[in-house]
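BUG: 3D viewer hangs when loading the predicted structure for this chain

Environment: internal workstation, default settings.
Expected: structure renders.
Actual: progress bar stalls at 90%.

Input used:
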Amino acid sequence: MCYQKMKWTNWLQILEKSNKQIKQHIKFMYARHCLVSVILFSVAVLERSAAQEFKPLFNGKDLNGWYSFLREQGKDNDVDTVFSVNNGLLKITGKDFGYIVTEKTFTNFHLVVEFKWGDKKYPPREDKPRDNGICYYVVATDRVWPRSVECQIQEGDCGDFWLIDSVTAVVDGVQQGPTNNTRVVKKKDNEKPTGEWNRIEVIANKGKCIHIVNGVVVNEAENVSLRSGRILIQSEGAETFYRRIDIKEL
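Structure tokens produced before the viewer hung:
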């Protein structure tokens, strides 16, 4: 009888011990599940937040927040519809030299655009590479072309710097400018063939400017003499389409 009692006691102790282990394992698994859920939720929130930091400068519907300036017609007098929006795309005919420019000024920012070339070209550039451009830190005076820093968009030259109207910068330790227009050729070529979409990024932050073409850094400058201004998209003799113009202020 005593032996039987001891046997049952041992079984009860083993069962109780097993139950404790099972409970501990369940608690561990629950805690790990909660931790994984929290991590996944946090990553999702961060990714959503990062995406939301970029805001559209071009809304895909109209040119709200921009105005046009053409060399012959002046401000907001685009009688030949050089700039238009259709099916979510900004179309620039290139027929007249000029630009659209933001009404707002920017200081430190990350700009992302996606563009592709159209078919048409116009005098005086009908026999030259297709040309367009993004100018930033544009001063308040409107003319073709206003004092600014340009990220060149031209067949074969995407990512070049143009320091327009005596702007200066330091590239690889060497002072560039001041001249009327100073060109700094990109270090790498990463353009896609004509007709395909290209992604151009400009990061301008505290005097340092970086040009990125399809994910590759192609040009960098420091100590840029302009630090704030508007952003413009050129019309310069070539049909061009933009489907994205987004900005994140830094």
